[in-house]
Every structure is written in structure tokens, then in C-alpha cells.
Records
---
Amino acid sequence: MKVRYFAWMKRTVGVADEEVSPPAEVRTVGDLVNWLRDRSAGHAEALAESAAFGAAVDKRTATFDVSIAGASEVAFFPPFTGG
Amino acid sequence: MKVRYFAWMKRTVGVADEEVSPPAEVRTVGDLVNWLRDRSAGHAEALAESAAFGAAVDKRTATFDVSIAGASEVAFFPPFTGG
Amino acid sequence: MAVRVQAEDFDVGAELNALTTGTRRIGGLAVFVGLVREMHVREGYHKDRVDALTLEHYPGMTEKALEDIEAEANKRWPLEATLIVHRYGRLEPGERIVLVAVGSPHREAAFEACEFLVDWLKTKAPFWKLEQTPKGDKWVGAHDADDKAAARWEK
Amino acid sequence: MAVRVQAEDFDVGAELNALTTGTRRIGGLAVFVGLVREMHVREGYHKDRVDALTLEHYPGMTEKALEDIEAEANKRWPLEATLIVHRYGRLEPGERIVLVAVGSPHREAAFEACEFLVDWLKTKAPFWKLEQTPKGDKWVGAHDADDKAAARWEK
């Protein structure tokens, strides 16, 4: 599964994307956040405050209770500021 | 003083504009409407219903109580339908 | 600030470029283009078809009325640029009638002022539409909806 | 209906011409152009000057999000034509960022749908603005006002 980071989260984590293979008990977006936090200090910092960022599963906005089963790409990003 | 007519009022009166010299007691736009009605059957028809048309004195919208003293041009027209 | 009344068509892109060139304080540009719409066309039954419109106006008064409306918008909202271009004469379905463009630092002000200008020019600028139909010419009546739209800005 | 995400500038006039050509059912075309605004410039004291913006986006998701928003507008209002063009990459003050255009038989629907699209794309399309200032790069934070503007269309 590919995990992608955008905007300041990308800089804080230190990579734009990475391939990960979380264990079977990591079932939802929220589970994945918890699991990713342990990968590095940058991950822990970027993913510290769940209220500060959003997620997408396979390029559709997803809340933290959404399943990641079968997903090929999960992304994390701060609130959008386009337009 | 020049009097001008627009849209269907022009066709009903039969002229686009005319020079008139109303007597001194014709003081307001409303007085002028009354006075003009007697000029022809077309005038009487076009100016019959005061609620059906508006007026301008020297190219500014004017209500019927506005004075025409010193005015060089008074216009009558149906409601606007531009845009 | 600019107002134009003309028979010729206008180039929307060129007008907007001219309006925004040289200022860097515009964050949002709200634009309205009014077009002649093909009306009342029922398949195979063209009783109410409109072949064209002829817009009559009151030269001299029209420019004053549009300038007054434009000044009122600039008084109500913090605008960096405003433009009104209105055509007169014969126009066929699909042709442009009017262009209203408003630039402001903030998009809300741009949208509001643009709607205000469109609503007010419909009821306060001396234009009259004559429809050419297969059954002859017909003057367009004023719309209650337009009066209501204009009235919401009265204060 | 069309959505484009691109680094290059767009030609507003050409885009609008393409949108309205071939249809005679559009009576009103409401358009919004978002531009990079020169911000926080104080005379002789350029502490907060913004030299440029860099817009990052999420390729693939951006197009889907914009198409969803466009489809929602077409569900809510009777529209004849819609277009969203959004740029990404480095943009300097005065440059165009986004174009939203909506054609409808009726001007009220065109204006409402255009405002809706602008409000929603600000909060639902994956773009992030990075400001280049003399003191270094700074990510733009989300605006409460934008959230409120978007929320008024929730139902």
C-alpha cells in the first residue's frame, strides 16, 4: 500500500510517499495513523494531532473510521487552501 | 422644450420627439402629461395610464411631481427591460 | 470605473485583461455576460419563436444611469475595478448583450457587487427590448422577478 | 461540463467563447476569476510581503474532487454549461489562479451555482498554497470564512 503526504506534512515526515505493509489488525484510516506514528520522529510529529489533517483513500476524501481494506493508496494532508 | 417618447409609446404617439411650448400653469411632469394628452388621439392613448410609464427630466428619472421649470428635455417611456 | 453603450459586440477576454492589468490588489473578479437566449421554442411548433431582439435605449440618459449605478456599487463595496458594457440594436440568439465585471480584493464583495449591478441595470437603465417573432414585433414587458431582484438591494 | 488542472495560464475569452458557442439556451453566464493578490504590503515596510505563491495539488484526486463538485452543481441548478480550470505551480501577484464559469437560461441560477462552485472548490479540492516571502516559505492556513462560505451550501 502506498501512503502519500502533502504540503507541510510531506516536509515534516520527510518523504512524499512510501510503500508500507501494515499488519492485518490495521483496518481503518485511524488505525493506520496510529501505526504510522511509530515509524519515525517526523511521522510522529506530522500525525500527532488528528484534528489537524484529513485523509483520502484511493483519491476520495475519507474519515478516520473508513476501512483501508484493499486500498492501494492512502493520503494525508492539511486542510485545503485552493481557489 | 423637447418631449421624447420611447419604445411602444413612440409608436403610439407617432413621433419620436417634438418641440412643445406649454403654458405657464404646466409646472410639473404630471401637469405636462395632462396637457400633452389633448394634442392627438395617439398622445391620449400613449399617456392614458400614468401607472404604465415613467418619465425623465433632462435625462434623469423623475416622478410626476417633479418641476419642469427650465428643463430642456422631458422623456416618457415604459418600464425598462434591458440587461 | 467605466461604462460603455455600443452597437458592436465586445471581446470579453480583452475587456477583462484591460480591467485587471496594472493592479495586483484584485483577488477575485466576478463577471456576468448576458446573452440573447432562444426562447419558447417548442419542437416543430414555432408559435412563440423569437428570431431576434432589438434593443432601444435613450442615448445620454443611459450612460448617466449606468454611471450612477456603478458609483453606487463602488460606494457599497470595496472594489478595485468595475466595468459595464451594454449593447443596443439588433441582436440574434446566442449574441452577447451585456458585460458586467467587478474586481475586488475579496470574492464575496466581487460577487455581491456584480449581482447588484446586473439587478439594478435591468430596472434602472433606459433600455427596451423589442422581440422579432414570426407573428410580428412585440415589446417585452417588465418582469416582476426583475423588480424583486432589484428591490432586495434598496435601503 | 469540463474540469482542467494545469500549470499553464488560461485565456478567459477563449474559454468562455468555447463554452457558449453552439448553444443558444444560455441567457446568463456567471464567471469567477481568482487572482494572486499582492498581500500585506505596507508602504516602505515589507515585513509581510508575498513575492509568489506555489500551489501544490494531489494529481488524480484533484480532478475527481472537481468533477464531483461540478456534478453537484449540475444536480442543484438547471445549467447549460460549466467549466472549472485551476492552476498549480508557482504564481506571482497579478496572475490568474482559477476560472469558474457557469451558463444557465436564468441569471440567478448562474450566479448561485458559480458562487457554490468557488466556495466548495476552496474547501473540497486538494490544493495547498505555499507563500514565498522575504522571511522564507510559509504554508497558508485554512480560513474560517471559507469554511463558513462552504457550509452555507450544505444540506
---
Amino acid sequence: MLDRIVGSRRATEGNGHLAVEAGLITDATQLAAGRPTPWQTVQTARNIARPHALDIIGRVFEHFQELHGDRAFRDDPAIVGGIAELEGRPVIVVGQQKGSSTEENIVRNFGMPYPEGYRKAMRLYRLAQKFHLPVVTLVDTPGAYPGPEAEERGQAEAIASSIQLMTRLAVPIVVVVLGEGGSGGALALGVGDVVLALENATYSVISPEGCAAILWRSASEAERAAVAMKLAGPDLLETGVADALIREPAGGAHTDHEATAAAIKSALIPQLDRLSRVPVADLLSLRYERFRSFGMFVEPDGSTAPMPAQPWWRRILKNPLEKGGL
Amino acid sequence: MLDRIVGSRRATEGNGHLAVEAGLITDATQLAAGRPTPWQTVQTARNIARPHALDIIGRVFEHFQELHGDRAFRDDPAIVGGIAELEGRPVIVVGQQKGSSTEENIVRNFGMPYPEGYRKAMRLYRLAQKFHLPVVTLVDTPGAYPGPEAEERGQAEAIASSIQLMTRLAVPIVVVVLGEGGSGGALALGVGDVVLALENATYSVISPEGCAAILWRSASEAERAAVAMKLAGPDLLETGVADALIREPAGGAHTDHEATAAAIKSALIPQLDRLSRVPVADLLSLRYERFRSFGMFVEPDGSTAPMPAQPWWRRILKNPLEKGGL
Amino acid sequence: MRLRNPFGRKTKEFPSHLWTQCPSCGEMLFNKQLERNHRVCQKCGHHFKLGALERIELLADPKSFSETDAAIVSSDPLGFVDSKPYPERIAAAQAKSGHKDAVLTGDAQISGVPVVLAVMDFEFMGGSMGSVVGEKLTRAAERAYADRKPLVIVSASGGARMQEGTIALMQLAKTVAAIARLDEAAIPFISVLTDPTTGGVLASFASLGDIVLAEPGALIGFSGARVTSETIGEKLPKGFQRSEFLLEHGFVDQVVPRTQLKERIAFFLNSFRIAGQDLRWSL
Amino acid sequence: MRLRNPFGRKTKEFPSHLWTQCPSCGEMLFNKQLERNHRVCQKCGHHFKLGALERIELLADPKSFSETDAAIVSSDPLGFVDSKPYPERIAAAQAKSGHKDAVLTGDAQISGVPVVLAVMDFEFMGGSMGSVVGEKLTRAAERAYADRKPLVIVSASGGARMQEGTIALMQLAKTVAAIARLDEAAIPFISVLTDPTTGGVLASFASLGDIVLAEPGALIGFSGARVTSETIGEKLPKGFQRSEFLLEHGFVDQVVPRTQLKERIAFFLNSFRIAGQDLRWSL
Ligand SMILES: [Zn+2]
Ligand SMILES: [Zn+2]
């Protein structure tokens, strides 16, 4: 009766646009034995000494010039963005910005953007599109700020619009999850052609504490929730949420910002090289399929139902790039 | 030495897209003798009993459904807009809204929009473009609100962006100045293919009081300023700021809202009929020329300078509409 | 909430299978009459939640609704277990609601206009969006795109379904990607927000309608009011995150009483004829 | 403003043709040195207003500036007379400033990148925009469009020129229409706001740069602070309508000290190669 399970994305079955390089981890078996537990990973991803967006931008790119403001309300310090060069080639880079001290965190609102932060990001995406610049986003947020002013100024609308814009933006987008990929507030920067994550980054629909409070009615069950939610690196590969992981220094990214940035830079260059040669129509169509194919469900005798779109990694076989050997 | 004066627009030389109908005044000689003075016209245009945007919308259009909000900050009551039908055909209508009592005026901020009002208008223009609906705007404002919150939220940016959007909006736009056309705050709704004005409307770069305070250093010279600024109906025809005037009832629009609305409706229908048959590229090109040609200056021996664009009423001869006899 | 009993009678005189008390005005409402009134309080206009079938009956022309993708059911991608396993929760919700998941989709006509219609049901696990809701809504949008028919979605949801983890989060991108293609093709999308529409559903397709309508008094917001209140450590203003609050802040085109919803949607559908289908203007 | 004299000397010891007092820190600045420092106070960094010629010298590569449309002069469309006739005001402004009107336009190179450059001069009737400014800026934008060269405009203006009435107002639409075509063609436009940029200039092209830069401490706003203050009947906050205020509120990309302005503009011009001219990405 249950004749097929559709839509599961697994890195092992294909990576679409991903340019696989030696440094990238595309399969959980490539990970070192003795992995930290999901809850340990949550702590590592939140470590205040972890390199944050500007730490990475300053080391990966040259000549970063920050651009400010949403042109409507405010410049949100929880999102930074601007123009920089990656080995001499200009890109637009946008990231959530946490602080590395309490004072900085107050200024940066602990990396929790207001709606105007997402609107600034959208302005920069449009600028990238206008001038044919690739986009790199750096995801690192506990989530979009949940305060009343954020509600008043349309947090949900800003996230929805940002996702919409990214799904159709006519330039390559590479997403790197640096630390916490917290819910819709992370996804608003997270729609790209290739999604990479640092080895100890997390990506989740809600914080483990929030999940535990709702489902177990106790925040102290957060550790169990972290396991159940499958939010850590190997899980992200398994579900296809991340196309590949970027290896961190042995002690974790917080022990060596330079090495972490170098690993990110090594990962980014081949991705952008590859993506910049894909015709825009193919880029958008494959980006659509990448997100279209998320979902695990059962469709009993789907013969009368319209066929779902083919999973994206099958389409990739038709990608002209594969033939040209670019 | 002074070999040419370029760029003056005069209604007598041509009206571009204007569909000339019996009810329209295209030449100051068609106006009744014994015209009110400019200062009297300023008073009439500001008369609180004059029909305001919603008074007109309710009488000219059917099935008006107001659409609210800028999707970012607030629904500004000083600008109203929505979808309505003009003899069964849908249009987007947007206008500044004054009150007809002190209480209403407090709610409507005396018809002085905040930036979010212009951003709501822009949202509706984009909606019109998306669904191929013509736009009608109703101008009636002392000016954009000059308070500090308006500055904080970017009054200038909102006006500039609104003007920019209207210059390239790919659907017909007809502007009707109902009462006060106050400065940039009016122009932000005032870029169209055809600009009409009620007989006693004004359109000025600054209020007469403001002009007098700056140039004569005395607001009591406002009457003189009103004359010097050439802001009233015959002047608007003379300078081409308005393509035509719509005749008001004998005592002025405030004495008869029904008759005023009927005159506006009679004027609008042929304009939209005509404009809806113009190919979009021609529409945009002629709209560009319409505003391009404003300006009076002297260019001594312009032979080495690039020729300025031809005034729009010469281009009109090339308009395919003229040949096809549509 | 303390409820007022206007007649001073004991509530046992109003057995709950026959009567419902209005949480807004306290009136005791006879269930049959409440249903006939589309679950709107006759006295104060309070809008009770409405099930998906009743909603379809309200909006679609009689017998015009033809369900699609009805068979899709949830699997358990993560093997998720909290106080009970996810599959047991699904089974319980199916038994309680009579639906396979939290949305019904299909082809329909609204006042004669052919549309793709999707209606969420809060009864099914709080209208939460997991793989099934995401897939059905995406297919609905794709069908609207392929058939060049307007899309109408009525939302009622607490947000993304936690039991599907990050895959639930990805449904935001999946549904929005499908809506974005409708947007590019200028195929109308009308989003109707009902009580409650929050979290991941509001932060995705529900906010992106060409026209966004809300029922009166519906709870609409990104963060749960509890989270927001804890964030600022104080009580929230009255009316916070209600339809009228969103109208004032510019995110909703109109607040429309349920009884007028069908004709209002029909008006907008008629205004937004799809390009090439409208001969009223020569544009 | 009360000025502080840091040396306690009498100001007559500083004849004004030789010395200028900084309105910000009170320092007495030797004029020649002030000019060498591009009219920035060496002590506190206060940015004095800069004339159009000095601005061009600051930004354009040596000898690269070639003026265009230099001959256009104002006529008197309205026959405008206030305390004196408009033509007399023009003549006085021409004599005072040495320019024919409030903007200079031309072709130039900035760090080797060919651009169309327009620079306003506040000395000429407060940098007000009438027909001549509107026409020259429009031609500059049209030349940038035709030649596919980036446009750089440095603004300094009190707004529209009242003496040209509604025709001055129409210059907002005229210049913006030309900028809008650049925008559609993805030809870069960098807008630099200097002290002061207000009224109709800020409410038109000056706000529409792909990149908007401002000099430190410049007055930038829509309404004059006097009008705003009268509107609310109270004093405005410190820093209101200054560059840094606009940066905080999201309308300016960067506040750039004058000495860094040229290299910063060059960086952005190099980032925004015009489509078809950039071989760095294969996009
Ligand atoms: Zn009630
Ligand atoms: Zn100083």
C-alpha cells in the first residue's frame, strides 16, 4: 500500500551544485570518531569565543566595506553586510553578527536581528543582483528577535520576504552556517545554491530549550531535545540541510579563528568558481529543486496524484555543466 | 548670442497623451472672465468643505476596496488607496486624504503623509503593475509631514523612491490634483502620463507662506508670493505642469461634490481609454519626455553641447497612435 | 479567563454538546445556531475557530471543491519521541480531526472563479507545518502555476512542526519558493489569516499574499506572546498581535468578517484577472 | 554660536583673509593650511563646506575633468521679483561664486575609472535646484546612460529654487526620471551628500544612489530644522539630521571623511563594473 517515500535529500545521493573538494565533509563517515554529543555541539556553536561574522569576513575577504541601513527605518547592528573581494573578485557578503563580549552582545542584540536587519540584507541582495555579484551569507543567530517592536515592524513579513527574494535572486548564493542556525531567523539568510556549515554548527527549527519547554514541559530536557531534533553536523548532512561541512580546527573554531577562516576560504572559492559559470536559469531552477525536495512523507498509491517534482540530484544529470566538464 | 530657449512646456503647443474632451480646459482663454486671484485660489483649494480623496473616490468609482499598509511599519491614514472599478474596469486609485472636520484632520494628519504613506502608495503601484491595472492618483496635500519622526523614517527617501517608481511604472497613470499640490509631498503622487487639475487647485514648490517667510522675511507677504509663484490653474496650463483643468461647479468644488465628481469621472474615462491602448514602451518614453522637458533656460550657442532631448510634444508626432486613429 | 454568565443560570443547564459559551461576551450560544452562523457569535461577532471542511463550505461554490493530494501522510523522518512517539501523535490527531494532516487542498470555484484552494485546520496538531503540509501547499502552488489559476490559502497554524526538526523549518523555504514563482508569473495569491496564524507559517507563505486578509480578532504574530512577554519582562499591550494590530501596523490589507469573506475574495479575484485573460483593459 | 578662542588672543590678531576659526572646536586655522587640508579642521576634523572646483580637484584625477554644458544659464520663467528681481540675484551669485549656476558637470576619471561627475556648489544661491541645475544633472545622467559610464553626484543644496516656482519642483521628477533609467540599465550611481543636502535635492536624485555616502557632520534632511522644530513646538535632539543620524536610521551607507572619499568611491566603482565590462566573474 505504501508505495513510495518521496523527497528525502541525502548528501550521499548527490550534492547538486556543490563543488566537492578535499577539505569538505560530505558524508558523516568522514567525521572523526568520538564526535561530541548534539548537546555539546549546541554549546560549542554558542561559544562566545567562536569566530563571528566580522571575524570571518576580515580573514576570508579583502577590502571589506560595510554598507549600512535598510533605507526605511534603521541600521540593524545584528546584521552586517557589504562589498568585499574574494581573491580579487567582488562579492556581497551578509551575516548575522554576535558579540564576543557582553558589551558587544548588547550592541549586536546577541545576533538577533530586527525586521530592519532582514530588510537591509534584502537591499544588499538586490544590489548584488543589479551588479551581477555573487552573494555569500554567514548564518549565526539564536533566532530573529522576538520582542514587541520586532512584531510591530513585521518580523514575520521580513523573514518571509527575505526567503522569497533569495529563492529567485539571479546570482549565485553560498550560505555558510557559522554557529547557531536558529529557526526562521536563520533561514532568512539561508536560501542558497550551496549550503555549507562549520563542523560544529547547528541548524534547528526551534532552540532545544524551546522545544523541551513545549514538548516535555521542562527546559531541563533540552539535552534530550537536542538529540531528538537532529540539529548537529552529521544530521544536517543526513537530511541534506547542509550540502557539506567545513572542518574546524581540532579544538573547535573558537580555538583558532585563522585556521577556521582559512578553511572557509578554501571552501568558498571553488563553490563560487563553479556557480559563477552556471547559467542563471539553471541556477534558479536547481535552487528551486534543492528546497523543493525537502520533506519526508508517504503517499499511498500516488498514481492518481500528480507526480512530484523530481528530486534535484536527479535533475543534475541534465545539468549542461556536467557534460562540459567545467 | 542667446540662440535658443529650451524646454518650456505649454499646453497650447500640444498635450501628448491627453485625450482632449469638451469638458476639459486646455487653454487659459477658455477660463471664465473674472478669475479669482491666486491668493483666493489658494483659499479655495484649502477649503475644508472641498471634496477630498474619499469623497471623490466614492462618487467616481464603483466597489472601492481600500487596501491598507506599507508591509513594514504602519498604515498611514493620510494616504488612502485600493482597488475600484471605473465603469466596470478595475483600477488602482491612491490619494492623499484630508479631513472635513478638525477631528478627521487630526486622524488624517491634515493630509500630510509620513514616509510609510508613500511606501504604501509604492506597494499599490507595484500591485497595479503586476496585474496590469491603470493607476489614478489624487493629489491633495499641504506637503509631506515635516516632523522629526518623518525625518527619522526617511521622508526624503520615500518621496524620491516614489517618484522614481512612477517614472518607470509599466501601466498608465493619470494624476488629478484635487486641491493643494504641496511641494515634493505632492509630486510623490504626481508623476503620470496625463496630469489634470481641478480648476481651483494649486501646485507649488513651497507654500506661499513659506516662500514669503524666506524671500520677504514675512509670512504676511504670502499673497504677493502666491502671485509670483504662478501656482494657480492658468499658470499650471501655461507652464505645462497640468495638461488640462477640470471645470468646477460655479461656486467652486466645495459647493457641489456630486457635480465635481461627475466632471472628474467624465475626464478620467477618455484618458484611461486612450492610455490603455498605448504600448508600454511608448508610454514610458513619452512619460519620460513629459517630465524631461520642464525647465526654462538659455543656452548660448549650444552647438558644441549635445542637443537636449526633443520636447515631448514633437515626439508625439511619431506616436503610432496618431496614425492608427485609435 | 473568568466567564460571565449573563442569565445567572448554572452552566449545567447548558450541556456542552448543545451549547457553547462565547469567550468574548459570555453569551451562551446554541451550537446548531452557531454552526449556521459559521461559528461567529451572534451577539458580539466573536469569530470561533473554523474547521477546514466548514471553511471550504463557506468559501467554495457548492460541490465545486475537488480535493487533491488527499492520500499523503506523514512519515517519521527523525524517529522523534517526546512524551510519546510522533507516529502516535499523528494517529491521535487523525482520529480527532478526521483529516490526514493539517491542510486540505484542492481545486474549487469561488463565486464562479476557478481557483486552487488550500485550507489549514488548527485541530490537527495546532495546524503545524511539517512535510505533509509543506508538500501539499507546494503542490497546490505548483498546480496554480501550471494551470494559471489564482491560489487562495486560508491559514490557521501555530507554526512549524517541531517533531520534524530542521526538515519542518525547510518547509518555509519550500512553500515560499513555490509562491515566488507564482509572483513572477503574476498569478494572484490571496492569503487569509485566521485565528491563530503564527510562527513559521506567518514567516513564510502566509505573509506573501498579493492581498492579505484577516478575520477579526485573530491572533497573528511571529513569536508566541509568552516568548515576547518574557523577552521584555512585562505585559503586552491589549490587542497585541491581533488582526487589528497588524492592520494598524501595515501588514494586513483588510480585516474582513467571516460572513463577507467569500464575496471579498471574489472581488479581488475578479480585479486581478490573469494577464491574457482580461479583455477589460487593452493593457 | 559662542566661539571659544583657545589662545585667549583677540580675533583681530587673526585677519579673516588669513585665518578662519573652526566653528566646531574654536581653533584658529591658517587659511592656506586649511585649503591644503581640503578644508578639514586639522584639530577636530570638522568639515567646512567645499567649493565645486576644489571638490573636483579632490575627486577627479589631475587634468581629467572636462566640463560639459558649461554655457547653460538661467532665464526667468516667471518674471519673479521678491526684494530684487531673480535675474539680479543670478547675476550677483555668478559674480560671487564665479560659476554660471549651482552645479558643474563633466567627464572625469576617478582613480582611472571614467565617470560622469557632477558637483554642486552651495555658494551659488544655496545650491538651489532650478532649471539649469535640473537640466545639467539630467544631461549628465543621460550621458552616463549613453556612454555606459558610472555617474557620481556630489550634492550641496538647500533644495528647490523658489524663484522658479513649480518648474523648480518639476526638476525633482526630471532628474529622478533620468536616474531611473540608469537604474534599469544597471549603470552605477554614487551619491555623495555634503553639508548641507536638504529639501528637494535630498527628496530626489540624492537619495537614490546605489551607494550613498555622506561627509561627517553634514546637515542632511527633508525639512529645515526650523520647520520641524516649529511643527513639534520643541527643540530637536542633538545630532538631528546630521550624517551620523542618517547612518543610524539606515539612509546612508557610510560616513566617509573627505580625505578618504576618493579612494572609497573608486573602490565602489571598481566593484560595480558595468555588466559586460567585467571579466572577473563569468556571471
Ligand atoms: Zn460573543
Ligand atoms: Zn575644529
